[in-house]
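Support case: user asked for a sample of complex input and structure output to validate their parser. Sending the pair below.
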Amino acid sequence: MATSPLFIHLDQMFIILRDWLVGFLPAALRPAAGVVLGVIAIVCVFPGLFALTTVFERKGLGRIQNRLGPNRVGPYGLFQPIADGIKSLTKEDIVPLSANAVVHFFAPLVLVVTVFMGFAVLPMGRNMVLVDMDAGLLFFFAMGAATELSVFMAGWSSRNKYSLLGAMRAVAQMISYEVVLLLSSVAVVMITGSLSLPKIVAAQNTYTGIFPHWYIFTPWGLAGFVMYAIAATAETNRSPFDLPEGESELVAGYHTEYSGFKFALFFLGEYLAMFSISGLGTTLFLGGWSAPFSFLTFIPSWIWFFSKVMLSIFVFIWMRGTLPRLRQDQLMNFAWKFCLPFTLLDLIVTALWRFMGEGWLRWVVSTAILAAAYVVMGRAGMRSEHFGPRRYRYAE
Amino acid sequence: MNATETKSERLDGWNRPPVIAPDGEGELLEVAMGPHHPSTHGVFRMDLALDGERVVRLKPVFGYLHRNHEKIAEQASYLASMPYTDRLDYICSLTNNWAYALAVEKLAGQEVPERVQYIRVILGELTRIQNHASSIGFLLQEMGASGTPLMYAFKEREKILDLFESLTGSRMMCNYMRFGGCRVDVSATWLDAARKVVAGLPQFVDEFETLLSSNEILMARCQGVGILRPELAVNAGVTGPMLRASGVDYDIRKVDRYGIYDRFKFRVPLGDHGDVYDRYMVRILEIRESIRIVEQALNDIPAGPIMDPKARIRGFRPKPGEAYGRIEAPKGELGFYLISDGGPNPYRYRVRPPSLINLTVLEDMCLGSNVADVVLIFGSVDIVLGEVDR
Amino acid sequence: MLGEGILKGMAETAKNFFLSYVSKERLTTVEYPEQRIPTVEAARVFPFLVYDGADWEAGLRCVACQICEKECPPKCIYIDKSKDKKPDYVGKQQFYPTRFDIDISVCMSCQICVEVCPFEAIKMDNEFELATDDRFGGLRYDRKQLARSNDYYHSIHPTEASEVDARLDEEKAKVEAKAKAAAEATAAKAAAPAPPAPPAGGGS
């Protein structure tokens, strides 16, 4: 059924549309025009998703807290982002007198531009990657590192010691977790043998029976995914790692001195970074655009990709609604003393998996090593920091 | 900032000399947290001197909410002060009323009927439950849990406040206790509604504990933070859950046995370490104990009058003398000291505010911790500015 | 195991998320002003003056004894006593207030004025949507604005109003019984046999 012409057309709908539009131009201009159309599509779709996500976040947090979210502006509050956008556009744009105006102006732009660049290599459906690079993963991480530059630009240009402290903390946090992020994706590269994201998806797009070969269903893949998810939460400054932008802390954060539309751009950049990191996580571990069961492949691939990304966003919102935030030094301790050793161990287990050959033995060995390491390291970490559950006594 | 600048040229608005680090190298960062701050529980200021991230000095500055309560009471009659006591610790108005009524009853030598004692216990313990729930909710809100535990706590608190409204007419400013009794009688329908509310409370506490007490992030942030040693607590006059979390067994309900508390079976939870996590857990365990007390009281409440027959509403002139009445308020020992000279107004009226006395050890608890922890430690003291400033 | 508490907490919030769609008890939001919580009978906001009958001036129960003015803690009641008197509900001649102002921006809804009034003349209202943009006097209510009929009092506090009415009827009955007894006594005296006529000059 998945091979019938209707479903193939649905699946390749956007490619067919692009080819038709580009066909109006002379042959020399066609590749460039195709890329331009793809860029326009990305620039329209992802900010639209951002608008929807802001509403869903507020409504989701509301429902978690047993209250309604915004529901006055439009049906079920769905026009709320329009109201927020108008509000941020009409606010006065205040630039501090002693600030470095050029750097202050470019910081949000650098953030938004580098985050958009990361979308260029994500395969959003079958044949639907904007640029098919051989080293796509490397390009993505390079762009991700460039976002940290904008954070520091924002903090430094404000000439406000609290903003600078907040920016330095944010950069330190992002750099530490960048290492964990990279190493957990190296495991995937080791098994696939390629840095190209479409090839990674293609390697996961096979099925035994009805079950797919997604990497999350392997022990090393699950461990890698958990580490990737923790690192992704810290990279995008989301709860429980959102100390740089916490409201009840003393140090106000790197975007204190921004108001109006520039603040909205920071907000946009942060959410787009969330989308792109979720997109990468989906590609690496959750099989990208492939369907979860072999009988569901008739549903178009881009629907699967976006559903998985939205599911990850929902998990982000869920964590934000539940967990208190970690203190800065506890955050860094966690990254360097737990996440990094565990990720390195995961690499070793991945290598073991690769060279042990097919069979039940490699499953048992990998699972045993990873589970034992997790439990032992977790206990050791908690004991060294002197915390754990307690019993209470009553007076006589 | 160089050494040749004189004190008067320093532009910090207060013209104070800069604070020098303990090792003599350079100045410390001086920051004022508040009075406009999302996590200072009201208008309260803390002047911090920071060495990097660590707190070297902390001076609390309060008085932003001073309303001359004690002076007004010298000019208003005894009854007219009762609504003002609602506004001291504005979250727990009924226990404030009770402490004041207790002090005046001691002064005037009045007896209180049995039914009223039971009513007072029921309302006092309900007040304790809703105060602890709200205080824990706010502590977690400051920790960054984006208001989820706060909303759950407030949902239960709303049910209790609805009970107060149907009995006293007002959710928070209850003005219900009178000298020698209380204002209106509780009806059978109210008692049934109260039983229903109390029946739903253990499930709420269980849900709360599932959400939070074994949460590793909460443990990491609260354990070992803001330790208060028991000797220091006793010397500074700290009372309430803070004292019991440091391990000192002192609960005025067990010590003084005021009212009819000796008829109820309840336990007093104690902590061992005196850190923020212990204070949080002691409050949760106290909610459970209060639920037990309310259930027992609702079962045993007798019929009877609700006012001392010899009491007078107008023209109340107690004989000259003095009295100190204290109760175990949710925040600590709330006491009223009254001196009467035989007139309709008290000669001296003094409130012993537990929040203020508990705040005196704030600096000792916060020295050496991070700035992020100061917010938590301050939240765990559980103050209300209405009481601190009166 | 590390992370167990976090997962338990997240399961708890997920349960709340899904149950808030299903159970009415979980989602307790009331969308004011389209939906309102019904007011409780005992609720108190600001005082009002009760009058019996249809004419608010003639039926006003307040006799300007000024007890509530003296007992009010923030002293927000301002009363001027009249010079003449008018009859009250039992017919006795009483003073009445020519001015009875309450400054509701000062009033703290403590209900002490209601407790100390010996004439059941001032009671608590439960209307709270009283915002006005008139800063100078908009929140100072005079006696015309404060007067509400006894039927209104019944509609907002039925049990209390019935008790008050019972008490007042009892008072009235007592006064009437006394008046009747006194009238009977004088009537009996007047209807008693005439005193024996003085002896006439001659017999007839």
